[in-house]
UniProtKB/TrEMBL annotation:
Keyword tags: Endonuclease, Hydrolase, Nuclease
Superkingdom, natural source: Bacteria
GO terms assigned for molecular function: endonuclease activity
InterPro entries per record: Smr_dom, Smr_dom_sf
PROSITE patterns in alphabetical order: SMR
Domain Smr: 25-115
Protein name: DNA-nicking Smr family endonuclease
Hydrolase among keywords: yes
Amino acid sequence: MPVAVLDDAWERRIATGSIAPDMSVDLHGHTLEAAHRRLNQVLAQAVARGARVLLVVTGNPRPASDNPHEPRTRGAIRAEIGDWLALGGHADAIASVRTAHPRHGGRGALYIILRRRK
């Protein structure tokens, strides 16, 4: 999913960790199917409530491996979430997706910045 340009105030809040998520969901430890289903549920709730920032905990991304035969278990949710968001029913409600500040999980979490309702 491409990273949209946000205004300076948003960028500063993300960089300093002063952003306050309106909602959060922890997908870490779920199967891919359960994580996808839960993400869709929480995203629908966030859009319905007019939330602006959804914190999604995915777990840390999988380290790069040169072995194509190594099983892909760790970081599987993180690897799929971009496609889930881009192809999901709420893709048009998403303004940007960013890696979370360390206080909110760092590389193991994402901020989903939602567009304002019109």
